[in-house]
Amino acid sequence: MAYAPAEELEIYAAASRGLMELEPNPERRLKYADFIDIYTALDDNELKRYQQDYAEENLAMTALFVRMREEGFQKGMQQGMQQGEAELLLRLISRKFGPQVAQQHEAQIRQAALDSLEHWADAILSAESPDELFE
To answer: Is the pTM of the predicted complex or chain greater than 0.90?
Structure first.
């Protein structure tokens, strides 16, 4: 960075404030925050000083990171549940109607929303045919 070491923390704080004020999209904020980190290249001691001297800016950025991490965690959990439901449903279809039927409907099942998967999982208990299951 082409600034005096004494100015680096203020520039880092100003960039963080500007980012939080000007960019409404949380995903872009995260991307630009990474850019700020790379550009300023603060060492561990400078980061500790920043956290102490610029607590408000640090809190805002920390809240952003926590929020994005939680959203990512929730999205991952949702995807995991969906994949698990799809796998179980494909196994049940294979056992009840044969592996060929499971293969025929695999793409449809893997792309389905969780509520559709749950509906089909309940319906497989009483369905007499694949057509009845997916109607």
So the answer is: no
